[in-house]
Amino acid sequence: MNINWFKYASPAAFYPIAGRMIPWFAGIALALVLGSLLWGFFGTADQLGGTNPQKEYYRIIYIHVAGAWMSMWLYVVLAGWSAIGLVFNTRLSFMMAKAVAPTGAIFTFIALWTGAFWGRPSWGTYWDWDPRLTSELILFFLYIGYIALHSAIDDSRRADRAAALLAIVGLVMLPVIYWSINCPDPTQCAALHQRSAPGSIHASILWPMLGATLGFWSYSFAAVFARLRGIILLREKDNAWVAELLQGEPKP
Amino acid sequence: MLGTFISILSRDLTLALRRRTDVLTVLFFFLIVVSLFPLGVGSEQALLRELGPGVVWVAALLASMLALERLFAADYEDGTLEQMLLTPQPLGLLVLAKVLAHWLLTGLPLVLIAPLIAMQYHLQDGQMLIMMASLLLGTPTLGLIGAIGAALTLGLRGGGILLSLLILPLYIPILIYGEGAVTVSAIALADAEPYLMLLGALLLLALLLGPWAAAAALRISVE
What are phi and psi of A202, to 5 degrees? Predict the structure, then answer.
């Protein structure tokens, strides 16, 4: 298959494609998240078994773990588009990075919020400065920093490039965040569910979790494309094709 | 290349010595912040011993950030920075010289004043030495990371507040290791060694990547 990928690097070419993909991703997201959560809330065991005292409230992991995964993945995506933009100087990459940032920040916030709610019955406190929640908080600050720097610079070209550099610098922090969540040596970090290797999780819990994660991925695609279309229209408002589009004329 | 490095270094040092208040403000800011804590939380000796390492490091972070705003600002305003960007010398080297000058003026004084802080917080002599060592290893890293932020926010309105938002999250590992070194040295001095090594590793990493990233940021901001 010989596809000219660079053709889609033009905002004008990508705008209609993004528009066509949004409903698909939104539909898949809705189905996956609803299905996984129904399965997770009503279809899985009440207890993790054995002496583990976690009862019903462990079910928050379906949202928490999926949100935490997305928060880190979207940062990689953000830094990746930033790097592509800086190297190839493509406008669409920067727009993509800008569109990803708010969704990433939202998922980080969800991970923090649900983590605090899980912590209340488990640790007896909403916030315990444990390494995982703290590192998610740092990630949240990184997203906020990216968004703040981007919106502080009026010249969109400079804003794109400066924020992209910041995103790449912040990427140094991501391994720290990842390893504070998935501790390589469990004796070093005495906490409750420190080991989160997929093999050690019961299948009926693992599958809804993966389903929810895929649903969140789908939602991210839909939300990012929707935001991207807005950014494209705003940035390209002086171009002929946007004027034609807004007047409702058929595009050639 | 070394000639350029030395001339930028000596130029920045001379400029700073002509206007000493800039340097002294940072030092006194550090001292005042550190002195405020005993007034705010109470002056029990045991409490202060516990708080001391963390307070010193947070104050060092804030002082370093406060000084960073001026790292490139003056050169940017009078056009010197543009001339520097046009020279055939590697920009990373020029940035490194500026950061070194900046550290000699604002980081090194913090290290030298550490014994005074140690007395205020009733730290033991060994702990004081570890505190100086950790500051000696940590403050240059703060400058190198901060230079990236200072370059990115160059000439922006509200740049100072924005700078703190961008840079403080990246400072957190240094804060944790620096504070950790001083805290564990209360039990046994040898315990601080891994923390100091991690601080050293961060410094090397920052030396390797920092000037290069700051140079790229300068090019973006000035172009």
Answer: -60, 140
Q: Does ipTM come in above 0.90?
A: no
Task: Please report the sign of the dihedral spanned by the C-alpha atoms of residue B13, residue B163, residue B176, residue B214.
Answer: negative
Q: Which of A149, A169, A167, A168 is nearest to A159 (CA)?
A: A149
Does B65 contact A at CB distance below 8 Å? no
| Among A145, A152, A153, beta carbon nearest to B169 | A145
Q: What is the per-residue pLDDT for A192?
A: 44
Question: Hunting for tokens 């104050």 — which residue is that?
Answer: B59
Question: Per-residue pLDDT tens for B156-200?
Answer: 877 778 888 888 888 888 888 888 888 888 887 777 888 888 889
Residue of A nearest to B205 (CA): A172
B79-101 pLDDT, tens digit per residue, is 888 888 888 888 888 899 999 99
Cα separation, A68 vs A173, whole angstroms: 15
CATH number for the region A13-44+57-182+200-247 comes to 1.20.120
Contact B166 A149 (CB under 8 A): yes
Count of CB atoms within 10 A of residue B223's CB? 11
B176 touching A (Cβ < 8 Å): no
| Shortest alpha-carbon distance between residue A83 and chain B (Å) | 13
Which of the residue ranges A13-27, A86-100, A198-212, A230-244 would you say has the lowest mean pLDDT?
A198-212
Whether the predicted model's global pTM rises above the 0.95 cut: no
Domain boundaries, given as residue ranges, for chain A: 13-44+57-182+200-247
> Does the distance separating the beta carbons of A165 and B166 come in below 8 Å?
no
| B175 at A interface, C-beta within 8 A | no
B169 interface with A at CB cutoff 8 Å: yes
